[in-house]
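REQUEST ID: PR-0412
SUBMITTED BY: lab tech R.K.
PRIORITY: routine
TASK: structure prediction, single protein chain
INPUT:
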Amino acid sequence: MENITIKDDFIKLGQALKLAGLVSSGIEAKIVVQDGEVKVNGETDTRRGRKLYAGDIFEYNGNKVTVNKA
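STATUS: complete
OUTPUT:
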């Protein structure tokens, strides 16, 4: 499982996908999220603006990533 570290209280799902290197652009993030290909804490989420907090886990394309706070 991979990890990303955030400085703020939360990060939006689209930004988290880019930070983790799972997508190359915001447009790609928007498409994969809207197509239901991303799970947050085990449940499919189609909101690119979904706020992720420390301890949340998101999954895409077989990759699981945990959000940590700096």
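NOTES: The mean pLDDT is 97.
REVIEWED BY: pending
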